[in-house]
Amino acid sequence: MSVSAVSPIEAEQARALLKALADPLRLQVIEALAGGERCVCDLATQLELGQSKLSFHLKVLKLAGLLADRQEGRWMYYRIQPDAIEALALWLRELGANCRKPASPCA
Question: Residue 49: CB partners within 8 Å, gap ≥ 6?
């Protein structure tokens, strides 16, 4: 999906996404999923995390809207929600563009 087709997010939504991404382990999960959908068992092995600890972080990311999941048999597969990443990137770009505006002269 292109950036122009992504719905803008409000500051509160951006804060929730940034908060979910602020934890180093959750950021590692996102980085591990950057190459595409992965099974929980593969993520646990790659990140050297116990299943319960990984499940907690996956839940936080999913509740924030950053991940989607699907079940196949007894295995859960996770993938990044690209629209959430694009919406956050758009919000950050707008923030960056607006911060360059000069101040109004003082009276």
Answer: 25, 43, 57
